[in-house]
Amino acid sequence: MRVFFDASVIIAALLSPSGGSSQLLKYVKLGKITGITSQTVIEEILEEDKFSRIKKSKREIEQFIAESRLIVRKPISAGEIEPYQGLVDIEDAHLIAGANLTRCRYLVTLDKKHLLRPDVQKKFLPLKIISPGQLLEELV
């Protein structure tokens, strides 16, 4: 099962070792799911406003990601994002592009405002845009 991880899920795992996001990353580490993200997502995590809330050094964050065994794809280019412009919030188009380019079945996110809405979810089928909790339910 190939799962594309949004920055929100990786940040949640960094902040809460016992939450659903952390549980998903444990499944990645154990090889139960194939976790994929992109360098674009990693750069988003390391942006100053998000980075300061995590209260870990850039080195600690990078080490956490490396140890998670997530596969990190090269940055998503503007050309790769273009087909999704106007279909989803421009800030999130790279996630849909990344999930589709890496042939993921799932995009896991905590973004209720822009991605976890039924109208957005329907636009990108067969890609399933779901929360960590929903994915954990599917895995059990």
Automatic annotation (TrEMBL):
What's the protein name? Putative toxin-antitoxin system toxin component, PIN family
Mind telling me which PANTHER family this protein's record contains?
Answer: SLL8027 PROTEIN, SSL7007 PROTEIN
Give the matching InterPro entries: PIN-like_dom_sf, PIN_dom, PIN_toxin-like
**SMART domains, per the entry:** PINc
The organism encoding this protein is: Candidatus Curtissbacteria bacterium RIFCSPHIGHO2_12_FULL_41_17
Per the UniProt record, the lineage of the source organism begins with: Bacteria, Candidatus Curtissiibacteriota
Where's the PIN domain? 1-116
